[in-house]
TrEMBL record:
This is 5'-nucleotidase. Gene3D superfamilies: HAD superfamily/HAD-like, Pyrimidine 5'-nucleotidase (UMPH-1), N-terminal domain. It is an enzyme of class 3 (hydrolase). It comes from the Eukaryota. GO terms for cellular component: cytoplasm. Pfam families: UMPH-1 (PF05822). Belongs to the pyrimidine 5'-nucleotidase family. GO terms for biological process: nucleotide metabolic process. It catalyses: a ribonucleoside 5'-phosphate + H2O = a ribonucleoside + phosphate. Its EC number is 3.1.3.5. Keywords: Hydrolase, Magnesium, Metal-binding, Nucleotide metabolism, Nucleotide-binding. One of its GO terms (molecular function) is 5'-nucleotidase activity. It comes from Ensete ventricosum.
Amino acid sequence: MRPGGLCRIHHATSLASAASIALPGFPPTTFPPPAFRCFRPGTPRAGSGSMDSTTMLPPGVAVIADFDGTLTRYWIAGRRGQTSHGLLQQGNAEYDAKRQALYEYYHPLEISPTIPIEEKTKLMEEWWEKSHGLLIEGGLTYDAIKKSVSEATIALRDGVVELFELLEELGVPVLVFSAGLADIIEEVFRQKLHRSFKNIKVVSNRMVFDEEGCLVSFKGKTIHVLNKNEHALDMATPIHDKFGYPNGYNPDSVLMKQRTNVLLLGDHVGDLGMSDGLSYENRIAVGFLNNNTEMSFKSYLDAFDIVYLNDATMRGVVELVSQLCAGNQ
């Protein structure tokens, strides 16, 4: 395992009948049973003959990943990396200042350990609705989004591209969850990946623009930090699909809810709720503990099956997926 990455597997009772593999530098480790197995392209499966790109894996496997602080780096050249919400500059100093004032008021409430979850949920809904209202009122344009991303201090975690390529090769669907803004996340992918991945869908707050590229509204229910769950699944749309699905029906959501084996990636304990809408039988939860290591270490070990420390790369996850595949050919 590379420096900065601590891997620990626990909760073995939840992974009954599991197969064992070895991670670099660690003893043999328990992972989910054969239902989670991967097959390399072109490798025939017993009784099924040669496989094409649609049958590389059993249909019950899915990856669910948070965006900010999980797919993106927490630190960049010694500076705190920006989030998909925080990088946005409307080109209107008055409204940028108003959104910053909202952050300074609500963020301490978000991280407060004394506010009951019901009350905090209402506060988060209030914060997001006010922020979205300011984006509309301040005349946000799609050109401003592109400019904001190009000038932002944001970068994908090392190894993310390799992970996406591997999952695409294996035919594994990926849901990227975020309480941020889908249009910004997709623009980050455009500028940083330089290609699209058909197996990746974004679940986030999606904007509606008029013919002149001006923001006029938001689509569907607001997604904030405390409700990234089964209701948000219905908002999943393919990357680069500007308009989503009509009439509220989302075939990808229906298929995702049927998946029973999940690899979940997040940087907050609350991200574990991202799989609430799936009736999974097995889940491997990978947590990225980017800062406040001593304070949060135990809670992360209690919550996640695997924990990486200190803004680690994504290459450990690539190795995990590769070993699961290699061990089950």
